[in-house]
Design a protein that fits this description.
With 226 residues, the chain is an alpha+beta fold. The protein has 6 helices and 9 strands, in the order ααβββββββββαααα. Strand 4 and strand 5 form a beta hairpin.
């Protein structure tokens, strides 16, 4: 496999290929460096875990709960199967609801604990529709701040996030600094590799703010010196 460099075509990045590369091209993302510069438009904070009793209607949250009973399968009509899983965290019960997701069968055992993330509905009873779920010891989509990217046809949030993670891992510590050191020291700006990592996948709010400060400064600096 060829070495992935910042100027490598996006199609050579793991999991992309020709077809998905065309979708990235439509966003103006042609190289790995372009992908690293394709910044999130928003973030979802999935670090906080709420108790079921605290969850409010239409609130998007994480809960940590234990499976109370086996996954229930209800064939409503042709091409419509509803899967319901009842969970509890000791403060209350909530139903996790998915549609036409046969692969869920056998995924959950009574007594197992999961992190669930999704939008809560409280009427007629508390439930989440199509939640993300993970074991607490295997968290990758919960327990951290998740970026939300601008998309094009053929791209999903998961694909862009995964591609971004691959790009970051391939170029970690290898991006050449673009600001003079005296400027960074004078204005207390973080280093480029740190900034790129934390503008995409912030370690915490402070790291995000440091990355954002650096890129806002850099943009204004180049406008003034152009």
């Amino acid at each position: 496999m060829n070495e992935i460099l910042p100027d490598s075509d996006i199609r050579f990045l793991k999991g992309v290929g020709e077809k998905r590369a065309a979708a990235f091209y439509s966003l103006g993302v042609r190289t790995v460096n372009d992908l690293l510069s394709h910044y999130p438009r928003a973030y979802e904070d999935r670090t906080a875990v709420k108790k079921i009793i605290e969850c409010e209607n239409n609130e998007t949250v994480c809960i940590k709960a234990t499976v109370s009973s086996a996954l229930h399968k209800n064939i409503v009509r042709k091409n419509m199967t509803v899967y319901t899983l009842r969970v509890s965290d000791g403060t209350g019960f909530m139903d996790m609801v998915w549609f036409n997701m046969r692969f869920l069968e056998g995924k959950f055992k009574t007594g197992d604990t999961f992190i669930f993330y999704g939008k809560v509905q409280t009427s007629p009873k508390k439930q989440m529709q199509s939640p993300i779920y993970e074991k607490p010891e295997c968290q990758s989509q919960t327990g951290r701040i998740i970026p939300v990217y601008p998309l094009a046809n053929g791209l999903t949030q998961n694909l862009v996030r995964t591609s971004g993670e691959h790009a970051l891992s391939q170029t970690a510590g290898r991006l050449s600094e673009t600001l003079p050191e005296f400027l960074r020291l004078t204005y207390n700006l973080c280093e480029l590799n740190f900034a790129i990592q934390n503008i995409h996948f912030p370690a915490n709010q402070e790291a995000y703010e440091a990355a954002r400060k650096r890129f806002v400064f850099e943009e204004l600096f180049y406008l003034q010196t152009a």
